[in-house]
Every structure is written in structure tokens, then in C-alpha cells.
Amino acid sequence: MEETISLKELLQTLRKRLSLILSITFIAVLISGVVSYFFLTPIYQASTQLLVNKSKDDQSTFQYNEVQTNLQLINTYNAIIKSPVVLGKVIKDLHLDMTVTELNEKITVQNEKDSQVVNLSVQDKSETAAVKIANKTAAVFQKEIGKIMNVDNVSILAKADVSEQPSPIKPQPLLNVAIALVVGLMVGVGLAFLLEYFDNTIKDEQEIEKLLGLPVLGVIATMDDAEMKASQKRFAKQNAKLRGERIGS
């Protein structure tokens, strides 16, 4: 016969293991908060924008084919921005104590679909360093692309600036704590049901009826030592009283 679990039993299990669930959740939130606020290094981001579009004089007309050519070149430009030719010169000009590979990992280059604007973002432990690297990379790329591909269709739309009140993009302590809260609850609830599943002890007469399919005719009450001694004294007094009454009669 297939065993079913009622909603009442589920709620009883949660109530029974509530202290375990809350403890696991609290520990998860506490660990997440401590790690996020005291151990993870804040990372700042600075961004600059490049426009891939050949400069024209006022008398030139708009040409659709040239725009399409610029769009097709953007993927190539994205690769060139992160190439050793550009990044090596950035490291040299800024006197950075890192390799080209390490600098490459800090830089993200992307553009919107069918857009001639390229976003260049740099992440670093120092916002000032991120701003300098972003602006220098854009400037070096704008200069080097003319030598590499013999074109003049890159201009800088916006430079990165140091904000007055910089805020790191990661870690996000509140988000980490919220995630830890949800994960802690899930782990606590899962562990509660797991412990209940492996708990084979019979706790009341209802479980006996459920397991055996037979009605319970009686229940033997349990007593602790104090109740046992009190019952023995009452029994002794009643027994002595009955003996006295028999002798008197």
C-alpha cells in the first residue's frame, strides 16, 4: 500500500524541527555576513565608451554599407583591445605591476546588438586604478588601431571618471545575506524531513494504529521516579487502611 503524507504531518515535522531549521538559517546568514563584510575584497568598476564610425565632413552623405562595415569590424576591434599589443603598452605607460594576462582578466569589452558603441569596463580593487586603466586602454587602442588596420574610425565618446562616493560592484553583502537566508532555510527544511524519514521510533498510539491497522485498546501510562514513589506510598496507605478495617471487623 502506498504511503501518503498529509499536510498536517508536514507542518508537524516543521514545527518539531523548527529549532534546527532556525539554527541552520542563522548560521548560514551569519557566515555570509561575516565573509561579505570582513573577508571579501571590494571590487570597483570604471567604464568608457568608444564609437566606431569614420569621421566625415559636412558634405559627405550617409552610407548604409559603411555602417555595416563598421559593425562587422567591431568584433575584430574587441579582440584587438585586449591584445598584447594594446595591453602591453598600457602596462608600460602606467607602470603596472602585472602581466598582460592579469590585465586582460580585469577588462571587459562588449557592445549592444547593431550598435557602433563599444563599452570598455575595467574592474580593480582601486577605483582610481580602474579609471586610469580604462582611459589609457581606450587612448592606446584609438592610437594603435590606425597603425594596425590603417583606419581612422574610432573616437572616444565618454571617459571614465572617479566618483565622489565610490561604491563597489561586488561583493554585495545584502544580496549575499539574502541568498544565504534562502539556502539556509532550504537546507534546514531538507535536513528536518531527512531526519524525520530515518526516525523509525513509534511515538504515540496513532502511529501504532497506522502501522498495524489495528485499533488501540488501552494505553499504559508512563511515570517518573517521583510519581512512582508517590503511587507506592498511596498504595501502602490504602493497603494498611484495608487491613485495619478487616481487623476491626
Secondary structure topology:
Layout (H helix, E strand, L loop, with lengths): L6 H10 L1 H22 L4 E9 L11 H18 L2 H11 L5 H7 E5 L5 E8 L2 H23 L4 E5 L14 H26 L6 H8 L12 H24 L1
Antiparallel strand pairs: 1-3, 1-4, 2-3
Average pLDDT:
83
Structural class by SSE content = alpha+beta
C-alpha-based Rg, rounded: 38 Å
In terms of quaternary structure, the protein is single chain
Percent strand equals 5-15%
Sheet with the most strands?
4 strands, antiparallel
Which parts are unreliable, with pLDDT below 50 for 5 consecutive residues or more? Answer: 56-62
**End-to-end distance, in Å?**
64 Å
- Strand line-up in the sheet with most strands: 2-3-1-4
Structure annotation, total helices: 9
Let me know the number of strands: 4
Order of helices and strands: HHEHHHEEHEHHH
**Helical amount:** 55-70%
Can you tell me the overall shape? rod-shaped
Structure overview:
There is one protein chain. With 249 residues, the chain is α+β, with helices and mostly antiparallel strands. The protein is built from nine helices and four strands, in the order H-H-E-H-H-H-E-E-H-E-H-H-H. The chain has a four-stranded antiparallel β-sheet with strand order 2-3-1-4. Helix 2 (18-39) runs antiparallel to helix 7 and helix 4 (84-94) packs across helix 6 (127-149). The longest helix is centred in the last third of the chain and has 26 residues, at 173-198. It is rod-shaped and about 130 Å long. It starts with 6 loop residues before the first helix and ends with a helix. Residues 56-62 have low confidence and may be disordered.
